[in-house]
Amino acid sequence: MECERVQEGRTTLIVPVQDPNHPFPPASAHVFYNRRMEINRDATILFLACACPDVYLDAMGATGARGVRIGNELGIPVVINDRDPAAAALIARNAQENGINCEILCEDANTLMSRRKFDAIDIDPFGTPAPFTDAACRSARSYLFVSATDTAPLCGAHLKAGIRRYGAVPRNTEYHGEVGLRILLGFVAREMVKYDRGIQPLFSFSYEHFIRLHLGVKDGVKAAEATIGHIGFILQCPNCPFRSEVVGPLPWRETCPLCSETLAPVGPLWIGPVNEPDILDRMLQVLPEYTFGSAIHLQKLLLTCREELSIAGFYDYHALAKRLRLSPPKIGDLIQAIRTAGYPATRTHFSGTGIKTTAPLPLIDAALRENQPGPA
Ligand SMILES: C[S@@+](CC[C@H](N)C(=O)[O-])C[C@H]1O[C@@H](n2cnc3c(N)ncnc32)[C@H](O)[C@@H]1O
Ligand SMILES: [Zn+2]
User: Fold this and answer.
1) pLDDT digits (tens, 9 = 90+) for 108-142
2) From 294's CA, which of 226, 244, 252, 332 has a CA 20 to 30 Å away?
3) Where are the domains of the chain?
């Protein structure tokens, strides 16, 4: 396998040379490495700089990019696994290249997580994490990190696959990116509570074509019950932009208060905060101490997540304006108008044209009408 050296953060990585003409170059080499996931790895390093577990398992290491960086840049003891012997060999080269002393394993991740426990576990598979979540929920003591790149099933574009993998109906809404994240969170939560354990979402985001969760894990019936208290549904009107959120079992045939249509359930999914403000503040504080390739994007992401309201779903205000045959004003003007009318309103990291607000739809419509952009 022909290799080259690349730099990520303060770590030099030996990675396979890829075919730039391949439709997806990372898949052209025997061992997987995707430069575009650097922000995903940077985010976890920054998170771990603030959360510091005793030992971290990179359950699907590939080149070992993630685990080697965590060992090298944070000094946290790491175990790196991949069931592919060629990957395990490359992980060993990368560990040696960076002078880190880590345990390298070459076995099935589910077998490994079934026979040993780890303080923090990272599952970063190809596509769906669903087949690995149960074992990870049993094995993770304090933290569980999950990547998903199967955004089409999660977000409702491949409905049947979404239902099969996650036991939930995603539905393709204007806020489908957020539905995907909340369906994944709801799924992990349900996998965890079986074991009388609970999760707390600490830093969760969606970016380009992946979803990433950083979760705290707690033992006990109390923690499990608190987690169940966050499982619910979004009820979306199929006829107009109205939606509401409910926790607990699905209510029987709710109708839209604006147009009387029967509301369609989206879920079950996670209702409630997907981020923990204190951890985001700490991450923002220590970010300048690190030399991340994605620093600017990561800072923007953290700042947006920090202010984002924790209600489920957002309005695409361009779609709202189009429906009223209006021009979309500047997003800042619209947010300000809604706040002036007495309701909280924020941007969302899920979409540049998304607005989160508890304001009733007629009030948002009025704010759109009253804030029409003047002639250029
Ligand atoms: C998306 S790559 C991991 C990327 C890596 N974490 C990174 O940040 O560059 C997925 C890896 O999981 C490994 N894998 C797939 N199924 C596995 C299993 N059942 N147990 C362990 N490793 C597995 C593959 O060999 C592949 O190297
Ligand atoms: Zn309606």
Assistant:
1) 999 999 999 999 999 999 999 999 999 999 999 99
2) 332
3) 3-307, 315-370
Atom number in ligand 1 closest to CA 125 = 10
Q: At residue 327, what are phi and psi to the nearest 5 degrees?
A: -90, 145
**Nearest ligand 1 atom to alpha carbon 111:** 20
Cβ contacts of 178 within 8 Å, gap of 6 or more? 206, 312, 313, 314, 348, 350
Give the right CATH number for 315-370 from 3.30.56.70, 3.40.50.880, 3.40.47.10, 2.40.50.100.
Answer: 3.30.56.70
Atom 8 (ligand 1) nearest CA: 66
Phi and psi at 145, nearest 5°, equal -115, 135
pTM: 0.97
| Total residues belonging to the chain | 376
Instruction: Match domain 3-307 to its CATH number in 3.40.640.10, 3.40.50.720, 3.90.480.10, 3.40.50.150.
Output: 3.40.50.150
Task: Compute the distance from residue 59 Cα to the ligand 1 centre, in Å.
Answer: 7
- Report how far ligand 1's centroid is from the alpha carbon of 204 (Å): 21
Average pLDDT score over the chain: 96
188 C-alpha to ligand 1 centroid (Å): 19
Q: Which atom of ligand 1 is nearest to the CA of 149?
A: 1
